[in-house]
Amino acid sequence: MTTPRLRLYDTLLQEHFARNRQMAFVSGPRQVGKTTTCRQEGTDYLNWDNTDDRRVILRGPAAVAQRLGMDQLRTPLPVVVFDELHKHVKWKSFLKGFFDVYGERIRIIVTGSSRLDVFRRGGDSLMGRYFLYRMHPFSVAECLRIAAPSEPIRPPMPLPDPEWTALWEHGGFPEPFLRRESSFTVRWRGLRHDQLMKEDIREVAQIQDLGALEHLSILLAERSAQQLIFSSLAQEVGIATDTVRRWLDLLERLHFGFRVKPWFANVTKALRKEPKWFLRDWSGVEDPGARAETFVACHLLKAVEGWSDRGLGRFELRYLRDKLKREVDFLVVRDRKPWLLVEVKTSDTALSDSLRYFQSATRAAHAFQAVMDLPYVDVDCFSRSDPTVVPARTLLSQLL
């Protein structure tokens, strides 16, 4: 057994309820630690999968209020966690009614499996009644500090070698990261994939050919950090190109992986270009170069989503590639303007010409070549505005 470890998201939820009356929706990949964190922050817990809890929820908001003892004067305000509530056909109307009547006397967390975010998109009946927090695996920065940032960039900090090695070899999902046993990590990864294919997919979509979908997922697992050619995938799996697009969207919403789209000042051009694909669990990527790029991609996605969820600005993760095949792995767009360029290398310290070119073309404030094998340097990467070779350990410690 591994000892639970405080997360950044404990702090975020505490701060959320200190400042807001809105519900907190916590979404994220399967087994990322949502239930553990939310139960730790909650005073009461109701799980739709528990028969007794389900009966109470089905009787409506008044029955839940009675179960929670809301007729009693309490301080501080109680915090109730509704887990897997999206499986209730009328979960949105239940939450709307419960929040509108009791919202001043209780604080509410809604969480569940990765499917919650899929169901959340289905309508806007809860608009204005919740804030979303997208939960990610452990990162370099979260291993160092769990305080909620007031600014996107923080001072650098050195990560101990055992923590860095564990992240690289076992990924950032709590169980394998904290347990740090290779055989367990391999078995855990296989089980997670099986649960996604056999349980999660069946709940959110009616797909007749699950074998073809699993074949697609295997191909995608082998192609992390590569540009996706939909027609090629369709031919390999033996399905239509439109089907590949739909299934890819489904797998992305279930947090199997994510797409990074190209950035162009002309949005129409960007929509015509193929995205790059990254697995959520970089520990399953065998090629060292692809794993390095996936590792940094996951860190950057966590940062841009976390900064956006915190209200620190509007951030997007993109990549750059032109007709001459010049490419930079990542571009962070801040409030619709290019802000940060990142090129990932395992050991190459010769500065990329493409990094120089695209910083000049986009006028991004920062351009870094993040090298995985370089030792930590105790210098703020963001003090530099010219293209700079930096240790990945230093850069990633300054994010989220």
N- and C-termini, Cα separation? 27 Å
Described by the principal axes of the CA atoms, the overall outline is globular
Q: What about the largest sheet?
A: 8 strands, mixed
Portion of residues in helices? 40-55%
Alpha plus pi helix count: 17
Number of strands: 13
Radius of gyration: 22 Å
Structural class: alpha/beta
The largest sheet has its strands arranged as 6-8-7-9-10-11-12-13
Estimate the mean pLDDT confidence: 92
Strand content: 15-25%
What are the low-pLDDT stretches, counting only 5+ consecutive residues below 50? none
Number of domains: 2
SSE succession? HEHEHHEHEHEHHHHHEHHEHEHEEEHEEH
General description of the model:
With 400 residues, this protein is α/β, with parallel strands linked by helices. The protein has 2 domains: 8-134, P-loop containing nucleotide triphosphate hydrolases (Rossmann fold), CATH 3.40.50; 140-397, no CATH class. 44% of the residues lie in helices and 18% in strands. The chain contains 17 helices and 13 strands. It has helices at 8-19, 34-41, 51-58, 61-67, 91-102, 116-120, 140-144, 161-170, 174-179, 182-204, 210-222, 230-237, 241-253, 267-272, 288-309, 353-362, 392-397; strands spanning 23-27, 44-47, 79-83, 107-111, 130-134, 226-227, 257-262, 276-279, 315-321, 327-334, 337-345, 366-371, 388-391. The strands form 2 sheets. It has an 8-stranded mixed β-sheet, with helices on both faces. It has a 5-stranded parallel β-sheet with strand order 2-3-4-1-5, sandwiched between helices. Helix 1 crosses helix 2 (34-41), helix 4 (61-67) crosses helix 5 and helix 12 (230-237) crosses helix 13. The longest helix has 23 residues, at 182-204.
